[in-house]
């Protein structure tokens, strides 16, 4: 399996913030795929359904004065997204 089999086509990386750490991830992909880009081994074999049924990929975005919960498998990345919290399953996989 190659990178082109996993990720949507992208031309550049965009910067996002994940719990205070700035990371570069591929544009035009869901956040869960972006997390997979950052940690291919842990996300690929993690307990994720990839379609929203399990909610193990829940994250919280900074949205004005409050946090907004979303599912990483259903949300496309946007440059300068600020992710303030992640589910325990994601924390074990990407936060180091």
Structural commentary:
The protein has about 100 residues and is α+β, with helices and mostly antiparallel strands. The chain has a single domain (about 5-95), classed as Roll (Ubiquitin-like (UB roll)). The protein is about 25% helix and about 30% strand. It has four helices and five strands. It has helices at about 5, 30-40, 40-45, 90-95; strands at about 15-20, 20-25, 60-65, 65-70, 80-85. A five-stranded mixed β-sheet has the order 2-1-5-3-4. The longest helix is centred in the middle third of the chain and has 8 residues, at about 30-40. The model has no long low-confidence stretch (mean pLDDT about 90).
**Over the alpha carbons, how many angstroms does the gyration radius reach?**
12 Å
What string, H for helix and E for strand, traces the elements in order? HEEHHEEEH
Return the CATH class.
Answer: Alpha Beta
Q: Please report the number of helical segments.
A: 4
Based on secondary structure, the structural category is alpha+beta
Return residue spans where pLDDT drops below 50 for at least 5 consecutive residues. Answer: none
Morphology:
globular
Number of strands: 5
Q: Count the domains.
A: 1
**Average pLDDT value?**
90
CATH topology: Ubiquitin-like (UB roll)
**Secondary-structure arrangement, i.e. CATH architecture:** Roll
């Amino acid at each position: 399996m190659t990178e082109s089999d996993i990720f949507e086509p992208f031309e550049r990386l965009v910067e996002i913030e994940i719990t205070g750490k700035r990371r570069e991830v591929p544009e035009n992909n869901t956040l869960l795929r972006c997390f997979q880009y950052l940690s291919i081994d842990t996300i690929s074999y993690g307990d994720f359904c990839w379609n929203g049924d399990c909610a193990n990929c829940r994250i919280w975005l900074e949205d004005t004065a409050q946090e907004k919960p979303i599912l990483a498998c259903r949300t496309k990345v946007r440059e300068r997204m600020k992710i303030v919290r992640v589910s325990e399953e994601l924390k074990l996989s990407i936060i180091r």
